[in-house]
Design goal:
The protein has three domains: about 160 residues, no CATH class; about 270 residues, Aspartate Aminotransferase, domain 2 (3-Layer(aba) Sandwich); about 170 residues, no CATH class. The N and C termini lie far apart (about 60 Å). Helix content is about 40%, strand content about 15%. The protein contains 24 helices and 18 strands. With about 700 residues, it is of the alpha/beta class. Helix 2 runs antiparallel to helix 3 and helix 10 packs across helix 11. Strands 6, 7, 8, 9, 10, 11, 12 and 13 form an eight-stranded mixed sheet that branches. Strands 5, 14, 15, 16, 17 and 18 form a six-stranded mixed sheet that branches.
């Protein structure tokens, strides 16, 4: 076929390569990287038939050369073709069910189209192509009507003799006929939605890879890596195949248990401990509130340490109230209203900082915690103590000594919850907490840089047994938040929760576990040396920049755990800093502006500048978002954060090459230098902050 050429060899020196088109074409092709990779499927361009789009089942996709002059159009059609091939392969020997491929591929492509940036959609606005028109008019899932779309069959030329829609397909399509990037932001809340210009969510990141940005935002949230995205995309393909073979429910249950077992394996946890995945860290707090009511029939008081450095919705969740206006299962609710079935509880907040904004000492915090619990215990109430092991600014409280002191109180009824959302812990730390009977709240989306909103509770065996034996059901209102499948199947309390699965949560955890696995494959000696090397450099770089001011040395030592043995929890890995202009600290508003500018391409603001300045301005830098902290205990301001994430280590360890490992670490240290230079560039051009 002399007129059929592999797409990589098709683009010649055409008008596409004019200066104004190149950047645009690059952007489209980068998005093509999110399309599934399928073995033995060639993408071929036809020159003799420029308007052809043809799917050769299990072999190739042929696309006419005229499509390539409209890159967005080519992208959408190829997304359809590849998805169709993916489902066709999954059908295995059931080729008579070809309608499934048509329906699933169209559903995926519709969502893919909706996630395109506004500029890309505008390029398709006036084009008259069957697939584009169908997608635009296809508002809701309607399998019956889609199975009758005979024009879809013309793409592959196979006769769809069986046009009936099998009931078993419905759950598979509703959950898995979605692009991986969509799944990674599904089943959370509105904060995961992306804007239609830059495709960034509230946290400044994407549900698909963003390799062009320098990213050190693990204290907040991070765009998924190419590595984790690819692995998760392959997982979706496996789940489609397993669902068609063994049934959706069986395949999904196996997947959920596999994720939990993999997490246990990575952290070397006891098989008897239970793991509950949740859509977010705040949802984990709501689960804790519910579990507490199962464990104890006493009146309950939650003592929340670091109330000023935990999630903003946590206090409401612990009180059994709605913390957003929409639940993770997409039920509309009213923020602040009580959730049906929760008992009234007391909540004592113990913030890290006093009314003047000054950080309290470890001793002051310990004293506050002790007094609060002593008084609560004297009232005969059940205490739920929420400790903090690494807050968003890197603090820990209360001390181990304080916990030992509390345990000596007479008739104390207390459950300790460890807020380890940052997961800046080694396996031995998690094991130690569980051995003591503490419930540990973690996420996969902070230190380990999985997609945002990967929450989980790890329940020690002793607590799990007491919950399992209780014959009390969870508060009725939780049916709007969780499925029965989210909870341990052996627990009676969860029996009245709804059927279904939160695939978004599962897929985000899949990506996070992939990151954890490759992080721990780096030998511990080099891992620890890389951590020390990088963190020392960040600390020194902030110190050396006259326009940055680190949180003071005294503060950084506050509440750190003392250990002669290296551990990730005893080294500072989050570096907050104030930003100064003319020796005056920036206002909260300007810090937030600067954060957004850092994460944007500003080259259009420096068109007449030297090339090195243009390059610096163009570089997108994603770091930890603003946290409001008083400067000098009086001036309202905010800090930004540069944070170590697991990828600094795991992406540097390649082919067991030690010299390359340290060179790669140095390359990321150079990125820190560029980030600080860009901050300086923005400050030097005050009009940018106006």
């Amino acid at each position: 076929m002399t007129n059929h050429i592999l797409i990589e060899n098709q683009y010649q020196r055409t008008s596409l390569f004019e200066k104004e088109n190149v950047n645009y074409l690059v952007r489209v092709l980068k998005r093509f990287n999110t399309v599934p990779k399928i073995n033995n499927i060639n993408i071929i361009t036809s020159i003799s038939q420029p308007d052809i789009f043809k799917i050769v089942p299990n072999k190739s996709i042929i696309i006419g050369s005229s499509f390539l002059n409209k890159p967005v159009l080519a992208l959408v059609y190829l997304r359809y073709g590849i998805e169709w091939q993916l489902w066709y392969k999954a059908l295995n020997n059931e080729k008579k069910d070809i309608a499934l491929c048509d329906i699933a591929a169209l559903e995926v492509t519709r969502i893919f189209y909706n996630l395109l940036p506004k500029d890309d959609k505008e390029k398709l606005e006036n084009l008259d192509y069957f697939l584009i028109t169908l997608i635009k008019n296809y508002k809701e899932f309607n399998a019956e009507s889609l199975s009758k779309q005979e024009e879809l069959q013309t793409f592959h030329g196979l006769n769809n003799s069986n046009k009936s829609f099998k009931k078993s397909w419905k759950s598979i399509i509703e959950n898995l006929a979605k692009p991986t990037e969509y799944l990674l932001m599904a089943g959370g809340d509105l904060r995961l939605n992306i804007d239609e210009i830059e495709l960034l969510n509230k946290y400044g990141c994407r549900p698909f890879p963003r390799p062009d940005a320098f990213t050190f935002a693990s204290s907040t949230a991070t765009s998924v890596s190419n590595f984790a995205f690819d692995k998760t995309d392959k997982t979706r393909s496996i789940l489609i195949r397993n669902s068609l073979k063994n049934g959706f429910k069986n395949a999904t249950t196996e997947f959920s248990e596999l994720l939990k077992n993999n997490l246990r394996k990575i952290f070397k946890l006891n098989d008897e401990c239970e793991i509950i995945f949740s859509p977010s860290g705040t949802d984990s707090s709501l689960q804790i509130a519910a579990i507490t009511q199962i464990i104890s029939n006493k009146e309950i008081t939650h003592v929340l340490v670091a109330s000023d450095e935990t999630g903003s919705g946590v206090p409401a969740a612990l009180k059994g109230c709605h913390f957003e206006n929409t639940t993770a299962l997409n039920h509309p609710v009213k923020k602040g209203d009580p959730i049906q079935g929760f008992r009234a509880v007391d909540l004592i907040k113990i913030p890290f900082r006093d009314k003047n904004g000054k950080l309290k000492s470890a001793q002051e915090l310990d004293e506050e915690v002790f007094n609060a619990i002593s008084k609560t215990n004297a009232l005969g109430r059940h205490v739920v103590l929420h400790t903090m092991d690494q807050s968003k600014l890197g603090y820990q409280s209360p001390s181990d000594e304080l916990i030992q002191k509390l345990n000596k109180l007479k008739k104390l009824s207390m459950q300790i919850i460890v807020d380890a959302a940052q997961l800046r812990l080694d396996p031995k730390d998690l094991q130690n907490y569980l051995h003591k009977g503490y419930i540990v709240s973690i996420t996969g989306s902070k230190y380990f840089t999985g997609p945002p909103y990967s929450g989980a509770l790890i329940i020690p065996q002793s607590v799990s047994k007491s919950i399992q034996s209780a014959k009390i059901t969870l508060p009725k209102g939780l049916t709007k938040y969780y499925h029965h499948s989210d909870w341990p199947t052996s627990w009676f309390c969860a029996n009245e929760l709804s059927d279904g699965f939160n695939y978004g949560s599962y897929m985000r955890w899949n990506a996070a576990i992939v990151e954890m696995d490759r992080y721990y494959k780096t030998p511990i000696l080099y891992r620890n040396m890389g951590v020390e090397m990088f963190c020392n450099f960040v600390e020194d770089s902030i110190k050396d920049a006259p326009f940055l001011e680190s949180i003071s040395a005294d503060e950084t030592k506050t509440n750190s755990y003392k250990s002669k043995e290296f551990g990730i929890r005893n080294i500072r890995t989050i570096f907050p800093f104030f930003i100064l202009k003319n020796n005056e600290v920036l206002s909260v508003e300007n810090v937030k502006k600067l954060y957004s500018l850092l994460n944007s391409d500003l080259s259009n603001q420096f068109e007449d500048a030297p090339m090195d300045i243009i390059r610096l301005a163009a570089q997108k830098c994603h770091i930890g978002q603003a946290v409001e902290v008083k400067y000098g205990n009086s001036t309202e301001s905010a800090v930004l954060r540069i944070s170590l994430g697991a990828r600094v280590i795991s992406e540097s360890w390649v082919n067991r090459d030690i010299s390359l490992f340290f060179r790669n670490i140095e390359a990321q240290m150079n990125q820190i230098t560029i980030i600080i230079k860009k901050i300086e560039l923005i400050l030097s051009n005050p009009e940018l902050l106006d």
